[in-house]
Amino acid sequence: MKEANKLKVFMIIFFSAMGGMLYGYDIGIIGGALPFIKLDLGMTATQESFLGGSVLFGGAFAILIGGILADIFGRKNVITASGLIFIASVFMIYSAESYHFLLFSRLVQGIAVGFISITVPLYLTESVPSLIRGLAVTCFQLFLTAGILISVAVSLPFITKNVPLIDTHTVTLNGHEYDFKGVPVSISKDIKLDEKVPVDVPSAEAILSEAPYTLKEQLLANQVNIDKSITLENVPVLNGEQGNWRVMFSTALIPGLIVFIGGFLLIKSPRWLIMKNREQEAEKILSETIGVDAAKQQMQEVKALIEKTKNEGSLLSSLTKRHYLAPILIVFSLAILNQMAGINSILQYAPTMLKQTGLGSVYVAVIGGVVITGINFLTTALAVIIADKMERKFVITFGTLMVSIVLLTLAVLMYTMPDTSAKGMALLIGFILYIFFFAIGPGSYIWVIMSELLPTNIRSKGLAVALFLNSMASAILASSVMPITQYFNGNYGVILGVCGICTLVYSFIAFKFVPKTNGRTLEEIEQGFIK
Predict the structure, then answer these.
(1) For the chain, what is the largest distance between any 2 Cα atoms, rounded to a whole number of angstroms?
(2) d(CA 327, CA 450)
(3) What domains can you pick out in the chain, each with its CATH number?
(4) CA distance 347 to 214
(5) Residue 210 contacts by C-beta under 8 Å, 6 or more apart in sequence?
(6) Residue 276, Cβ density class (10 Å: 0-12 exposed, 13-18 middle, ≥19 buried)
(7) Residue 42: how many CB atoms within 10 A of its CB?
(8) Is 100 helix (H, G, I), strand (E, B) or coil?
(9) Which among 348, 368, 445 has a CA at the least distance from the CA of 23?
(10) In the beta sheet, which residues pair with residue 160?
(11) Which SUPFAM superfamilies does the record match to this protein (predicted)?
């Protein structure tokens, strides 16, 4: 890179990789906020899981059109627009007064994240020198893990400990007992006489939801003394926790603004410019990033390859060609299995899982989440350092093998250990090991390996489908965690076991079918499949 403009390359990597921070923030912030959203708005276990998975569903469908939009409007413009959509979603979430509007707002946020997840790896793969391509795309994953860490950490200042909560108080209606335990005393005193509360979900968390009966009717049914301000008399009180989940989400405005403003400073993808027959612009940009001589050579290679493949048809028709079918099947398999390893579900639900398994309060569980995401960030930083020094095929194979061993071990422990603090600590240690091996292997390199393996002519569309499958797998798994766990009496062993088996299959595919890519140009990798 002697001739390269290092500052320009740095800006390409930094501002586009900031999109990864948006993705990470989106994944991490829900972990600390979820227990308090549940208390504030009232949710069943199924609703809780759908809220956790909603951003992934929104992202999945955005990914389907993200590749098309990136081809039409350019990678740079889609990244900028994603920042704007993300900012809008933060304001929507902050103002949400009902579960359904919050769910919709998270779907909108997922759309922004979906555009980011398809466009940024594509943009980095096409815009940076091949010698640092692994480092550049891995920086996207590094920023993603930084976003998760920061979002979990910023949750802590907004959690208030020692808040007076109703200890135990039940109301009986139609033969059902409705428990007020856990409802803040301050909230119970401010409820309006005619406020409707649930009769179908007997839990404290659902007290403020819409339902056919008023709070006044329920209180009178249990002979609770009330006045015009609804004061509960002689109710046992305990010290609990409250969290300002709206402010937690509002902190996401900062990375959103950086991505939006930084998008205007990015260069256009030279390969996209060549595809649009804007060769002079492309050569100028390549000269600034890889040097004049290398730019001329790469221009010839890219044009020759595009000319050779421009009449080869759509992504669907490409499945009939062996040199396209092989990389497509490999990439699609990796995309699905990378999420079936459970990474997003574990990061989203870690505080909840740790608390329910016996690690104590929400505050302590969130601290455990900070430790997990901190390990994730530090290990990903290590992965960035070795990105172009160790063969990606080996690192992914080894990492997935170790992840499967950790998950299967945890699955056994969840069924054999009693629900004590020791079990919660075992789960925390297991999660730390899981995160370490995932981050050093598949977590850091999945983005770059998928971008590298797909041929130029179908890269954006192929990557869009791959990431759609990736997000759908993640969304389905995240939406299933709580209902499945509830079905098995609150035991997380089944979910961890399924993820462990999927990761073992992942390791085999990486070992058997993924080619070596380090130090090779995209055109050389593609030629390898043609031969």
Answers:
(1) 87
(2) 9
(3) 6-160+247-267+311-530 (1.20.1250.20), 168-235 (no CATH)
(4) 38
(5) 196, 198
(6) middle
(7) 22
(8) helix
(9) 348
(10) 242
(11) MFS general substrate transporter
CA separation for the pair 508, 335 (Å, rounded) = 14
Adjacent-strand bridge partners of 242? 160
User: How far apart, in whole angstroms, are the C-alpha atoms of residue 75 and residue 290?
Assistant: 19
The whole-number average pLDDT for the span 214-227 is 43
How many CB atoms lie under 10 A from the CB of residue 386? 15
- Please check the confidence at residue 388 and state whether its pLDDT lies above 90: no
pLDDT tens for each residue of 409-431: 999 998 888 877 788 888 889 99
| Contacting residues for 482 by C-beta, under 8 A, at least 6 apart | 45, 46, 48, 49, 52, 349
Strands 237-243 and 159-166: antiparallel
Instruction: Kindly tell me the number of DSSP H helices and DSSP E strands found in the chain.
Output: 22, 6
- Helix, strand, coil shares, percent, the chain, to 5: 75, 5, 20
Sort 376 into a burial class: Cβ within 10 Å, 0-12 / 13-18 / 19+: buried
How many residues make up the chain in this entry?
531
CB atoms within 10 A of CB 4: 20
**Which residues lie closer than 8 Å to 441 by C-beta, 6 or more apart?**
383, 395, 396, 397, 398, 399, 400, 402, 403
pTM of the model: 0.68
Single-letter amino acid code for the residue at 401: L
Q: How confident is the model at residue 333 (pLDDT cuts 50, 70, 90)?
A: very high
* Residue 344: C-alpha distances to residues 31, 120, 159, 492 (Å): 11, 19, 23, 15
pLDDT tens digits, one per residue of 467-481: 788 888 988 888 888
H/E element, 161: strand 159-166
CA 354/CA 351 separation, integer angstroms: 5
**Rounded average pLDDT over 57-74:** 85
pLDDT per position as a tens digit, 176-187? 454 555 454 444
State how far the Cα of 126 lies from the Cα of 347, in Å rounded to an integer.
Answer: 30
Write down the residue that tokens 């900062």 correspond to.
254
Residues forming beta bridges with residue 179, ordered by sequence position: 170
pLDDT mean over 186-193: 42
Question: CB-hemisphere CA count at 13 Å for 269?
Answer: 26
CA atoms within 13 A on the CB side of 258: 16
CA gyration radius, the chain: 25
Which phi-psi region, left, alpha or beta, contains residue 489 (left: φ > 0; alpha: ψ -120 to 50)? left
Range with lowest mean pLDDT among 102-116, 229-243, 500-514: 229-243
Q: Is 7 helix (H, G, I), strand (E, B) or coil?
A: helix
Residue 236 to residue 220: CA distance in whole angstroms: 18
Count the neighbouring beta carbons within 10 Å of the beta carbon of residue 19.
32
CA-to-CA separations, 127 to 132, 457, 530, in angstroms, rounded: 11, 16, 24
Q: 456 and 309 in contact (C-beta within 8 Å)?
A: yes
Q: Is the dihedral of CA 52, 58, 63, 66 positive or negative?
A: negative
Q: How crowded is the C-beta side of 130, counted as CA atoms within 13 Å?
A: 13
Q: State the DSSP code for 266.
A: P
